[in-house]
Amino acid sequence: MIKKGIKRQIVLHYFLVVFMALLLVEIIFLIAIRTYYYDTVYNHIQNHIRLANDFYQPFRLPNSDNVNQLGEMLRHFDLDNTELQIVNTSGRVLTTSTGFDTQQTIASSDFTQALAGDTSRWVGRDPGTGQIVMAVSQLVQGGEDQYVLRYVTSLEKMNNKLMNITLFAISIGAAVLATVLAFSIGLANSIVKPINNITTVSAQMAKGKFDVRIKGDYRYELGELSSTLNYMAQEIVRSNQVKDDFISSISHELRTPLTSIKGWSETLNVGGYDPEETKLGMQIITKETDRLIGLVEELLDFAKLQQNEMKLVMSSVNLKELLQEIILNLWAKAEQKGVKILLESEEKPVIHGDANRLKQIFLNIVDNAVKFSHENGVITLSFTMEEKFVTVTVRDQGIGISEEHLRRVKDRFFQVNPLNGGTGLGLAITQQLVELHHGSMEMESVLGEGTSVMVRLPLPEGEPPGA
């Protein structure tokens, strides 16, 4: 079974188009073959009736009795491998070439149309034998009376032959579909494999591995896409180099004003200079300070646009004690809004992590819960223990987040309401810190009802869930 994706869609669509076209062709072909065979039988009987009638009419015996008349008609109109029935205009069979069942009454469509002067046929199941037969009827003049000549021939052999042709056509169709399926899979692979290669390399680039490149001489749009991604990675590497050069350069830029400030500060601290010289020194210090402020502001703006690497100081951390400490830190802020923070768990999970960074994670989450809770609301903290993970859930009954904003709330610099202040980096940094601890963070929210934040962290291997 081909898994869902572009490959499956290509194979499925290509296969369906060919299948529907082949099915239509086979149906038309089989209908045409059946019609041809049936028409051949019908035309043969019809021509025989016409030729026999042309020969019979000039030489028929006008004054012969009914029995001789019927026998004479049977001899003239008889046809091999076909039963000939002579039927009166009332539908009663008077005699047959086989001599069987002469008491039956005919009421099929071929008989009724023959009475109207047309040569007609009827295909159906014979009530006596149960076989599929074709009946061809025509009205002829026999002496002073009119009779209907009804030829009945079995179609069993013909239908068996048609069935063999049908099975052969189905076999050919199945072989064609198998070939088409193999061809479509090959065609899909020629498209999907380059896409999978490009996707894999792009995922590595998204994780910061900009030294990887898409290899392969792809043509047309895929070649343009791979060239664009390789160019993008090259430009990012170049930008990182520019950033490193900038940091090196800015360090030198910082050293110059600091040296001036330190030198004049030491000089002025000694004293003994006239007011003009002191004023000049203070002006230089002020100027260099303004320059430092400008440089620092540029560094801060630059830092907001970069992804910083952090080193964790790992140790055993009791999550329950950590959350109790966070509750105490936010107690005063929560008390001002009348918000209660409850820790609803008796578990004492111990994990391996950086205590300060874990505190930063949950402090930010609980602080947001307090900030966006209604007055006199309740915030609950709880643990869910698994075999190898512990999930900390922070649930509030606050204003909630819309579905549109929930998808972007962990993006850098994104704020649901910019008027609330902040940089919009809190949850983005929290997400990165959780990932550094090999965990995950999920959020669920209903606008107007509240928000739940689930932080899932790994437990130390070989240790029980609670310690």
TrEMBL record:
Its EC number is 2.7.13.3. The keyword Cell cycle does not apply. SUPFAM superfamilies: ATPase domain of HSP90 chaperone/DNA topoisomerase II/histidine kinase, HAMP domain-like, Homodimeric domain of signal transducing histidine kinase. CDD domains: HAMP, HisKA. InterPro entries: BphY/WalK/GraS-like, HAMP_dom, HATPase_C_sf, HATPase_dom, His_kinase_dom, HisK_dim/P_dom, HisK_dim/P_sf, Sig_transdc_His_kin-like_C. The chain crosses the membrane at residues 12-33, 165-188. Its main location: membrane. Residues 249-461 form the Histidine kinase domain. Pfam families: HAMP, HATPase_c, HisKA. It is found in: Cell membrane. Residues 189-241 form the HAMP domain. Keywords: ATP-binding, Cell membrane, Kinase, Membrane, Nucleotide-binding, Phosphoprotein, Transferase, Transmembrane, Transmembrane helix, Two-component regulatory system. Gene3D superfamilies: 1.10.287.130, 6.10.340.10, Histidine kinase-like ATPase, C-terminal domain. It catalyses: ATP + protein L-histidine = ADP + protein N-phospho-L-histidine. It is a multi-pass membrane protein. PANTHER family: SENSOR HISTIDINE KINASE GLRK, TWO-COMPONENT HISTIDINE KINASE. This is histidine kinase. It comes from Paenibacillus campinasensis.
